[in-house]
Design a protein that fits this description.
With 321 residues, the protein is α/β, with parallel strands linked by helices. Helix content is 18%, strand content 24%. It has a 7-stranded mixed β-sheet. Zinc ion binds next to helix 1.
């Protein structure tokens, strides 16, 4: 299978529109100078795409930068068909939660194009019952096909036309935290187990089996996840923050990294400590917030991540398993 990292930033992107932190200002300064990038690579908001056959592509979440990300990757461009000019190689979308940086891209895919969306019933309810704009995905009868997924139950990824992919997805419950925009009236109808998922995508069986994990938001890499990741060939891990109180320092935010559902990279039980001990998988940080010092490629934090055997994800990286 082929996996494309289309966006490696957390919500807000890098640089973020209202941020003048050393990273965001540094990235803008390098852009203005017009020379080659020595310290900062700009990044769009978190997005992955995966394909088993180079023909049907499955999106893991739907980023607000999706339109730009599709244009940046020719495999996702429409091909003109005998029946007309409207087409997309995007076969379906799998949602890990209802965070805006994971679902806003769905609204960019509303041009009467049939679309298949996998999500937990709770996430589907938030989008379709609590947010009327998502009815734009269902202007024509049968335009959107929602498939409810259950934590712990593996399923094969199938296109909106019903074509099987040979890719199997195991969603696992990670967190019970719903986005703060969800109305209090909606909360009682939502299952805490369905709030935030990690995904394990698998192709093949036995000795030919390949699999990777996608964990854009995880509070703790506990024993279960350590074991699960150690069986994978590749892991995309939550790289939102370097330290637990990073956003407090940067913007006076009230909550710590862990309180926001993101394991920090540094410190005891941080993601660097845990991931560096896992031998088998290739390890890539994604969902990197603009305040994270690892974005400075000349800094000691960036060097520490590389030294631990982990890569700092960048837009456009491609992986073959
Ligand atoms: Zn910033």
């Amino acid at each position: 299978m082929r996996i494309k990292l289309l966006g490696a930033s957390a919500g807000g992107g890098f640089p973020q529109w209202n941020c003048a932190c050393p990273n965001c200002s540094g990235a803008r300064d390098e852009r203005k100078s017009g020379g080659s990038r020595r310290r900062f690579q700009e990044r769009t908001q978190s997005q992955l795409a995966v394909s088993a056959d180079d023909r049907a592509w499955f999106l893991l979440n739907a980023s607000p930068d999706l339109r730009f990300q599709i244009e940046s990757f020719s495999e996702l461009h429409p091909k003109s068909q005998a029946g007309g000019t409207r087409h997309t190689p995007i076969a379906a979308v799998v949602l890990t939660n209802a965070d805006l940086d994971h679902v806003l891209g769905l609204l960019l895919m509303r041009e009467s194009q049939p679309i298949h969306i996998y999500a937990t019933a709770s996430v589907r309810k938030i989008l379709t019952e609590d947010n009327t704009m998502y009815r734009m995905l269902d202007q024509k009868h049968g335009q959107v096909k929602w498939t409810d997924i259950l934590p712990g139950q593996s399923f094969e990824l199938v296109s909106v036309q019903g074509e099987r992919s040979g890719l199997h997805c195991l969603p696992l419950s990670i967190d019970s935290k719903y986005p703060i925009y969800v109305s209090p009236q909606a909360l009682p109808r939502l299952d805490p187990q369905e709030a935030v998922l990690g995904l394990v995508i698998r192709e093949g069986e036995g000795s030919r089996q390949k699999q990777f994990a996608h964990l854009p938001g995880i509070r703790e890499l506990d024993e279960n996840w350590r074991k699960r990741i150690s069986e994978c060939d590749l892991v995309f891990c939550d790289g939102t923050f370097w330290e637990d109180d990073e956003l407090k320092k940067a913007s006076g935010a009230a909550r710590t990294s862990r309180e926001m559902g993101h394991i920090p990279m540094s410190g005891p039980a941080g993601s660097i400590e845990v991931l560096s001990r896992l031998k088998r998988p290739r390890k890539v940080f994604t969902h990197i917030n603009n305040t994270n010092p690892v974005l400075d490629e000349t800094g000691e934090e960036h060097a520490a991540v590389l030294k631990a055997g982990i890569e700092v994800g960048k837009d456009g990286m491609e992986f073959k398993l």
